[in-house]
Write a structure and sequence with these properties.
Blueprint lengths: L1 H21 L17 H10 L3 H12 L1 H16 L8 H23 L8 H23 L13 H8 L4 H37 L2
Length: about 210
Amino acid sequence: WAFALVMDIFRWSIGWIDTAVTGSEFSFGAALPLHTCSTFMYTAPIAIFSKNEKIKTAVCNYLCTINLFGGIVGMYVATAMMSHYSMASFYGAEHMIYHAIVIILPLIMLVTGFYKPKKHDMWLGLLTFALIAIPTFIFDCIFAVDYMYIYDGSTLEPFKALAAIMPHRLLWTLVAIAGYIGISAIFQFSAIGIRVLHDKIKGNSSK
């Protein structure tokens, strides 16, 4: 997590410095760590270091469901970026490594037993999502940007195409939130499945 944090802060800093030096217009829609995958930077340390079991469970569930989805989407975007940046470049390598960590850390949490998901944890994970998504959506509305894909889906082509057929922008917001809830449920039961399979394998190996 710390390695991913340092790399991402460095990448954001380069972008901000470049904007200041070149006199480019600051892009509120791309220059802030508010995307779903970016929330990993400030939720992972809470999951790792929090002493409060409720908070730890809530954030771990978020990391292993919605944020994991964000990492997968981010990896898709990072792969698409290879047409603009070489894997050998800092931007190309940083995007790939960062999103790989966002995906791998939750899997490590599940496999090692650091987080043992239970059926009702999903609601705590969704509460964490709400605490992040609500202020992000307000920010989106103020600056007409699309962090977390909940404003108008314009930051990702498949979402943009789907949002374009919606009769009203707020309908896309509702669809996006429903999608996050569905993703949370799918990943939740997948996480429980991984945990049960791990316990079964561990139990068989100890016999």
